[in-house]
């Protein structure tokens, strides 16, 4: 059986661990590497790959050994991709990615079926946004969250030292449509005195008056206001292309700076907007070992499912009941996952970081 492994979307700190797991489980079978994301899929940029080709160091670094990318895929693109798969006699395809990737993989399988071409498809979960349906959490998220739990408290302590000059600091995380990373940035178990005073999520509609009142209250109570905001929490304030097809336009961030300008103009105090940017998804040095282990395992499981011809699924990742942290990897139909977004559940949709103890307990075992 000849297999193809690729990645679409953006890298994470542990995505190469999923590749390593896949290649390890597929040892002894022909495997082709898809290079360059969806563009490479359409163009047929496939090259033979073995576990020995991927440096061990790559599994502990950010970036993507396979390359990555995004593309709004058309029916013609799907046909071109299937023609490429035919030329290379590929029997099974695994793609590493999030909900857009799973939509692409599902569409590829459906188009193959419509053409009467047998094709086994298995998705490998990967996204720092944690917005993939069918998993308790997605590989990649825990490492980005761990980065935030290490960096943001230090930013809060730095802010406390400089509050006389800079009373308001607003720190912006990734998250165009979901607030999972902003929630992680509220972590303060090790230093409650420097917890954020306010968190803004895309799931909670932004209210300018309430925002300014909360900042003013924090200033009156604490002498400073430290705010965490998801990049998509107030989409009306910037021109960022949050709803571009398949996320094919670059987001530059900046809502934190817009909000800082609003605070300065309305409250008359100095305010700084910090955009943390791509370091959240690329900091391999701060990756979670739990995340790396789970990323490796979902890669292994995907290869085994392909070799068993059990396709049309995403490798699930589910917490098992019990007092200690444990996960299972039951497959989830791609049809139930493709193109869907897993938002923050209702019980964690709050602007008050002090109300997130349950979320922090959920997050803690992922941080490694």
From TrEMBL:
<dbReference type="GO" id="GO:0006002">
    <property type="term" value="P:fructose 6-phosphate metabolic process"/>
</dbReference>
<dbReference type="InterPro" id="IPR022953">
    <property type="entry name" value="ATP_PFK"/>
</dbReference>
<dbReference type="InterPro" id="IPR035966">
    <property type="entry name" value="PKF_sf"/>
</dbReference>
<keyword id="KW-0479">Metal-binding</keyword>
<protein>
    <recommendedName>
        <fullName>Phosphofructokinase domain-containing protein</fullName>
    </recommendedName>
</protein>
<keyword id="KW-0460">Magnesium</keyword>
<dbReference type="GO" id="GO:0003872">
    <property type="term" value="F:6-phosphofructokinase activity"/>
</dbReference>
<dbReference type="InterPro" id="IPR000023">
    <property type="entry name" value="Phosphofructokinase_dom"/>
</dbReference>
<keyword id="KW-0808">Transferase</keyword>
<comment type="similarity">
    <text>Belongs to the phosphofructokinase type A (PFKA) family.</text>
</comment>
<dbReference type="Pfam" id="PF00365">
    <property type="entry name" value="PFK"/>
</dbReference>
<keyword id="KW-0418">Kinase</keyword>
<dbReference type="InterPro" id="IPR050929">
    <property type="entry name" value="PFKA"/>
</dbReference>
<feature type="domain" description="Phosphofructokinase">
    <location>
        <begin position="3"/>
        <end position="305"/>
    </location>
</feature>
<dbReference type="GO" id="GO:0046872">
    <property type="term" value="F:metal ion binding"/>
</dbReference>
């Amino acid at each position: 059986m000849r297999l193809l492994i690729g990645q679409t979307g953006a890298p994470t700190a542990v995505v190469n661990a999923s590749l390593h797991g896949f290649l390890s489980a597929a040892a002894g079978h022909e495997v082709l590497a898809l290079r360059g994301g969806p563009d490479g899929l359409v163009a047929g940029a496939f090259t033979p790959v073995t576990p020995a080709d991927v440096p061990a160091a790559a599994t502990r670094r950010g970036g993507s050994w396979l390359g990555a990318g995004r593309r709004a895929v058309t029916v013609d693109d799907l046909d071109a991709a299937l023609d490429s798969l035919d030329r290379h006699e590929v029997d099974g395809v695994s793609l590493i990615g999030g909900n857009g990737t799973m939509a692409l993989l599902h569409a590829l399988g459906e188009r193959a079926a419509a053409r009467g071409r047998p094709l086994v498809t298995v998705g490998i979960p990967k996204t720092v946004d944690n917005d993939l349906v069918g998993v308790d959490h997605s590989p990649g998220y825990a490492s980005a969250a761990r980065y935030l739990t290490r960096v943001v408290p230090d930013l809060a302590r730095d802010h406390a030292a400089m509050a006389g000059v800079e009373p308001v600091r607003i720190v912006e995380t990734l998250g165009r449509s979901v607030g999972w990373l902003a929630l992680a940035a509220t972590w303060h178990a090790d230093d409650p005195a420097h917890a954020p005073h306010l968190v803004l999520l895309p799931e909670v509609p932004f209210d300018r008056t309430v925002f300014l009142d909360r900042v003013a209250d924090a200033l009156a109570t604490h002498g400073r206001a430290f705010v965490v905001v998801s990049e998509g929490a107030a989409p009306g304030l910037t021109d960022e292309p949050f709803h571009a097809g398949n996320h094919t336009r670059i987001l530059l961030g900046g809502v934190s700076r817009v909000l800082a300008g609003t605070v300065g103009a309305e409250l008359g105090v100095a305010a700084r907007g910090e955009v943390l940017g791509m370091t959240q998804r690329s900091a391999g040095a701060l990756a979670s070992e739990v995340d790396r282990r789970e990323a490796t395992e979902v890669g292994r499981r995907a290869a085994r499912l392909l070799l068993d011809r059990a396709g049309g699924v995403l490798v699930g990742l589910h917490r098992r009941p019990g007092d200690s942290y444990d996960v299972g990897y039951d497959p989830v139909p791609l049809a139930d996952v493709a193109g869907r977004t897993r938002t923050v559940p209702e019980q964690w949709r709050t602007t008050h970081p002090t109300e997130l103890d349950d979320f922090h307990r959920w997050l803690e075992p992922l941080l490694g």
